[in-house]
Predict the 3D structure of the following.
Amino acid sequence: MKKQPIKILLVEDNPGDARSILEMLNENDKAHYNIFQTNRLDDGIKILVKDHFDLILLDLCLPDSEGLDTFNIMKYNAPDLPIIVLTGLKGDIFAVSAVGRGAQDYLVKDEINSKLLENSIENAMKVSTGDI
């Protein structure tokens, strides 16, 4: 039986980072992802209202929101969806705080590889479905 694709909303404003994440997700032979990308928090929220997603990959520094406010606003609008925070800084206090407030994980963009991203998504999905 074929698994349903995991539907991911990627909210990332840096075109290079977004392209890199999309390429990593497409490297995976086992999992299948349907990814929709936007570069603004308000657009991401509008998309969530219109469509169903399984997971959110969220950059904390966007043109219309920064830091912990970005996570808090997204979590308020998608309280039941697992959110993986993306950050450009190792040990980013906002990313660590977001995990304390309910983010499933945070990943440092310069340190992400396809295996790390896949594992983070897999773990987030297991937690959200109660499989852990």
